[in-house]
């Protein structure tokens, strides 16, 4: 088969990839023939079926496993799709950091070894108002490091209503157990008072922990103490107070009419001794766990051996610095950082984008697809602002000659892949998360899914 003209078109690919594809297809057809000997009417049909399957498998194998996806779901921080899209400045910074050497841990002024955190420390302190900071590889790591440093072998008091589970079934109590701190639950699922914390304080208490419920809400008959109450109790008892913000935000989305998420600046100002938050959620940067707070608590974390295991790499440093620089001008940040731009995009612009996308699809695929646009809502995603629905305009499409499920599957297997969702037997596209430069690609993916080439 390697000498067949249709296979030789792949001679620029690694030989092992082509050979493995041929062997896998032959093995599959042998299995089929053992079960259904009369599946093919004659040898020519069998040979053609094998050839098509081999070519298809080679093409699939030649594609990178990690590849781009057009996000048609409208979910801005889609965890399965990589969460925050980096800004152009952040992408350029990563490119610069990876195409050659850099001063990652070199102080160019002194000609001495420096700290990789120095590239972002001043920016974080300026933007948050904190005394000190540290960055690790994600927020779960930030929480683990803080607990291990401040409360190992001691008790950590937390409200029952805040014992959250994050992505991948990881839970706060389990992270706490790994840190060596003992969990003390207070209050109930829906109501916890400051007195509940105070009654559990003893000599073994190492930390008062508040976990912001960034990925769910308890509503109705509820109560929780304000952070300032916990801070007052902590100071009176000489116990540090930590808040795990989860999503974390440096831009006041509430002022822009999006949710009621507290900013990192507000939490620091309220007196929290330690605050942890993510870099790749509402901040709109790379995956990172950012820890800010009082110098007396952050300094021991920097000396903890875990910090070495959890440290960020040069690509994260580069992307995070570029992202943070955008926040020096809040208006500029909203325009430059894709996450903020998508969350605050005016409804009128979304309507225009939906009409343009719908017109492009209709123009090329009117005989294959029914198309109409209508108002709808988008989700924030990524465990952020769980109750917020963002008004948007949606493009609804329905294949005329295929089942919707098989059509969506074909879109997902396209190149690039197109992720959508189904509502009442219509395929839905939300322009909020589809970049205008992707429109032509999207139409081509739709064409192929409809049977075109």
Automatic annotation (TrEMBL):
Compartments (UniProt record): Cytoplasm
EC number(s) from the headed UniProt entry: 2.9.1.1
Molecular-function GO terms, alphabetical: L-seryl-tRNA(Sec) selenium transferase activity
Coiled-coil intervals, chain numbering: none
Enzyme class: transferase
Biological processes per GO annotation: conversion of seryl-tRNAsec to selenocys-tRNAsec; selenocysteine incorporation
Pfam name, any one: SelA
N6-(pyridoxal phosphate)lysine modification, residue list: 281
Catalytic activity field: L-seryl-tRNA(Sec) + selenophosphate + H(+) = L-selenocysteinyl-tRNA(Sec) + phosphate
Job of this protein: Converts seryl-tRNA(Sec) to selenocysteinyl-tRNA(Sec) required for selenoprotein biosynthesis.
Protein name in the entry: L-seryl-tRNA(Sec) selenium transferase
Name of the gene: selA
